[in-house]
Amino acid sequence: MNVTESTYNTTIVLMEAAPYLNQSMHTLLPGSSHAAIFINTPYQVLLSLKAAIAMQFHVAKSSVEDYPSFHALLDSVEFFCSRQAILCLATALIINKFITGFIVFRGRNPRLFSMKAWYNPLLHLSSIAILSYYLIRPLRKDFQNPELYMRLDVTSFIFAWSLLTESILSLSFDRTPLESSDATLFELCLYMFILKQQGENHVSAPLALDCMLTMANRLLIHTLEFFQCRKYRLLGSTITSLTHLFFTVRRVYLYKGDMTKLSTFTTYFPRFFFVCVILTSLLCYLLAIIVRFDGSFEHIKDLEAFSFMDHLISHLNCTGEEDFTLVAGKLATMLCVGISSKDGKLNAEFSPLIVPDKINTKFMNNGYSNRIKEVVDYDETTSTAKKMNGFTSKHLLPEIFGLHHLYNFLDIIRNYRRNKLSHRIANQPDITGESRIIIDKPGTVEQEMDDDQLNFNENGEEDSDTYDYEYNDTNMHDSYSDSSESEFEFEQEIEDVVENNELIDMCTTMNNDDMDWMTHLLPILKYHYETGTVATRSMYQRDHNSNHVKHNTCINATSTDDPVTSDDDDDIADLSCVVCKINPRNVVLWPCRCFALCNDCRVSLAVRDYKKCVCCRADVHGFTSVKVQNEKS
Amino acid sequence: MSRLLKEYKKIQTTLSPNSTHHNNNDDDEFNQIITYLHPISTSDLTHWQAQIKGPQGTPYANHEFQLQIECPPTYPIEPPIIHFQPLSMPHCNVNFQTGAICLDILEKQHWTPAWNLMTTMKAIWILLKDPVPDSPLNVDIANILRVNDQSAYNGLLNYYLSASPSPSTTK
User: Fold this and answer.
1) I need a labelling partner for B130 at 20 to 30 A (CA). Which of A38, A68, A401, B14 fits?
2) Do A86 and A211 fall within a single domain?
3) 3-state DSSP call for residue A226?
4) Is residue A606 situated within a structural domain?
């Protein structure tokens, strides 16, 4: 009993000597129940520990005032232990791990979590409200010294909240989150920390202005997202940045002569310089126009900068992805380097193209022929991609001489149609894959087996037997496989007009095996007959329930092209860039639309001053990054 | 370097004589053109040697020609440096003494990284098929070609080809 009492006495003495150890008034749970004690005691111990460490730290810091470098080191240690730094870490963790992970998870199970449309305005509005409150308050009270009224801790929390809401919303609606380049959360927290340290001493007054600019830009982003008009981003950020620059310049003017205060403004030099370069260039251009002006604007086109100015909008990324600082920097660089609009185009990035699932195989670089016609929608992409799988695996490499097979094939078709060879039923699929049905009556039905085979697969009827598969297998391996596949690209027409009688004739004269084959063909022939015109594959697809057709096609295509794909494992992976063969292709060149490069190779080619497409030698005007989810990887 | 490694793999599957991969016209074509194409030592993929067959219907038919290929470190951004075996190739676009080839795609301006060693071999083979006397490295042969003296052309080439120590004659 004595021991306990003496321990208690010592504790009391200790508490009086070092008041920071007494944290007993801090409680997490009120009352004196067992649960409250169980929770409060460790909490109080932790608080005491923290207070002790903090005090030791401050003692240590004050003892080394004479050593500035050591002092600075302790300062940075203090920052990393401060509330702001921990907030940074937490936000970064939430954005990087939880949100992204959640979005990926949601992408896999889209039905489980559907983002309600009203989340968007609600969350943005909350951010807008707190941001504008934050911004207006200091402005109203004292315009000259807004930093006095900054609630320092709150600022970083507001910023973090704004970042979080924005990234959640953008990612869940499959858009890139907008980011302002003025200050990251980390920088902002650092500013806050410095401001807090300096307290009333206003050496770094521009920091407060910086914070306000950053907040203004966040407000801008939220407002734009709220009204869904991203394209005005550049305009808005230009206004805020220029205002900020104006105030900064004004302060520089106020502080003239005071070198220590002026030195804090060096960080604004690049931005100031960009604006100067742009203004000077514009002025020169206008001056040149005025000098050249002689009643008409014809001569202006001779100016060297004309084409650049003419294409100014296309050079700048005005989609709202980038804000003033980035765009001004780019523009200034372009003006200084003196790129006219005709060259250096491997460096000119156009707005990004987002291909949602797997890239359409029409994007593939196939010799000289295969270029992007349009960005197809999600549904079509998947089905065509799968349908073309066999085709892809052979044509991915830039087969520079590969095209003549296609022409050979087209020639064969043409010759064949011209000659109208024989007039009897001979529908055994021969090994060359060019089997024909020819009917007694002259010039009535001629079918390229290859055309029809495609329709087999798309045929919505039940394909219970394995005929198609076998047929495809032989076809894939024969010498004409190239040509039979290349027609995917060409949407060839089936130019048959079939009379009803002939249809029946055909069916009746077939033996059993042929009948089997006929049942597959029948709906198509019927369709020809019903429409009475030349029916194309797309028409057929449109008029029949296309989903069913697509579904069947996918099944057939995936099962039948297996032998081919297993042959060339190299070629499947050949969404790889044609130059390095390592990275996946993710750059489309304009205007030739060749999809053959990865971004690394584009950069290394641009550095070496390549101006032409690596595949087709067309002049390159620019490129676009494509996001491709590689299903194989 | 990994690009060369991948090309090597691809070449091996395409050109292997007993491969089952000959389901493809292109593979067949490459097999008809190239006898072999491999790095001189497997530890160094920058130096290669190749042998291509003379195209039918030309004086080069039934002859085979050796090529030395050197890939610069910047390959495939820059073209490989390709030479015929010196003193073995009478052709109006080939320097007979050194074996240097005058072919636009082997120059930096006209090369594109989308080409690879096999397609380059094919381009050289096509050059054998269709000589371009307008940009000659062997002026004598080019002059004969320009005046379109077929018999002189064939005779001269046959003389050269039978005299030179072509690998096919030693076979």
Assistant:
1) B14
2) yes
3) helix
4) yes
Superfamily the domain B2-170 falls into: Ubiquitin Conjugating Enzyme (3.10.110.10)
Cβ A447 vs Cβ A436: under 8 Å? yes
Cβ pair A364, A595 in contact under 8 A: yes
Kindly state whether B23 is in contact with chain A, defined as any CB-CB distance less than 8 angstroms: yes
| Three-state secondary structure call for residue A494 | strand
Q: What is the Cα–Cα distance from A82 to A416, expressed in whole angstroms?
A: 82
Residue that has been written with the tokens 């024989």 in this structure: A422
CA dist., res. A141 & res. B9, Å (int): 73
Provide CB contacts within 8 A for A230, sequence distance 6+. A178, A224, A319, A320, A321
Residues A115 and A222 in one domain: yes
A176 in a structural domain: yes
Rounded Cα–Cα distance for residues A345 and A356 (Å): 26
What are the pLDDT digits (tens) for B79-98? Answer: 999 999 888 888 888 988 88
For chain A, what is the domain count?
3
For residue range A305-336, list pLDDT tens digits in order. Answer: 776 777 677 666 666 677 788 888 878 877 77
Which secondary-structure segment (H or E) carries B44? strand B44-53
Asked whether the beta carbons of residue A482 and residue B25 sit closer than 8 angstroms, the reply is yes
Q: Is the model's pLDDT at A436 over the cut of 50?
A: no
Closest of B95, B67, B87, B56 to residue B160, by C-alpha: B87
Span between the terminal Cα atoms of chain A, in Å:
70
Query: A122 lies in a domain?
Result: yes
Reading the block at residue B37, the tokens are 């194409």
Is the sign of the CA dihedral A404, A582, B79, B124 positive or negative? negative
The beta-carbon neighbor of B3 closest among A580, A605, A615 is A580
Answer positive or negative: Cα dihedral of A181, A185, A189, A190.
Answer: negative
**Is B102 known to be catalytic?**
yes
In a domain, A108, yes or no: yes
Q: Give the strands of the sheet with A353-354, arranged side by side.
A: A353-354, A622-627, A587-590, A595-597
Domain, as residue range, for A585: 575-632
CB within 8 Å: A570 and B13: yes
The answer to whether the CB of A217 falls within 8 A of the CB of A182 is yes
